[in-house]
């Protein structure tokens, strides 16, 4: 079932959201300071490309630098990416078939706002990285 949902997701919104994360990552990688943010954008972009069957979990070893980085991310790119998820999620929830896709978009909003200190893991192994 998750493969079918991922294919529908890819066609309807996943590819475009991935391009948004890719663009944000490329812009952020222009400076040396922005490289960790760009890498986070690429990581979350892959999650946005194929979200069903994966989940984001907080890393317990992430400390104060990831907190400061998340604040910078929120200002630089997080708002725009979260807004894209909100608009896409509302548009997908208009139809009955699109409701699971809209919920997946809403699930991606916290990750798009604060991606540092999170890890993407398969849903059957949420505690494997700890």
What Rg do the Cα atoms give? 14 Å
Order of helices and strands: HHEHHE
The shape is: globular
Strand order of the largest sheet: 1-2
Topology:
Elements: H1 2-28, H2 35-49, E1 54-58, H3 64-92, H4 99-113, E2 118-122
Antiparallel strand pairs: 1-2
Notable traits:
mainly alpha; globular
Fold and architecture overview:
With 130 residues, this protein is mostly helical. 66% of the residues lie in helices and 8% in strands. It has four helices and two strands. The protein has helices spanning 2-28, 35-49, 64-92, 99-113; strands at 54-58, 118-122. A two-stranded antiparallel sheet has the order 1-2. The chain starts with a helix and ends in an 8-residue tail after the last strand. 31% of the residues are buried. The model has no long low-confidence stretch (mean pLDDT 85).
Short précis:
The protein contains four helices and two strands, in the order ααβααβ. The protein is mainly α.
């Amino acid at each position: 079932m998750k493969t079918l949902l991922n294919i529908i997701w890819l066609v309807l919104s996943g590819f475009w959201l991935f391009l948004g994360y890719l663009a944000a990552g490329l812009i952020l990688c222009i400076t040396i300071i922005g490289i960790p943010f760009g890498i986070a954008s690429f990581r979350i972009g892959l999650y946005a490309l194929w979200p069903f069957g994966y989940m984001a979990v907080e890393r317990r070893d992430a400390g104060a630098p990831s907190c400061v980085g998340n604040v910078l991310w929120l200002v630089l790119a997080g708002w725009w990416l979260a807004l894209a998820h909100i608009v896409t999620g509302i548009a997908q929830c208009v139809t009955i078939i699109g409701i699971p896709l809209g919920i997946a978009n809403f699930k991606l909003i916290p990750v798009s706002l604060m991606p540092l200190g999170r890890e993407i893991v398969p849903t059957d192994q949420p505690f494997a990285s700890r």
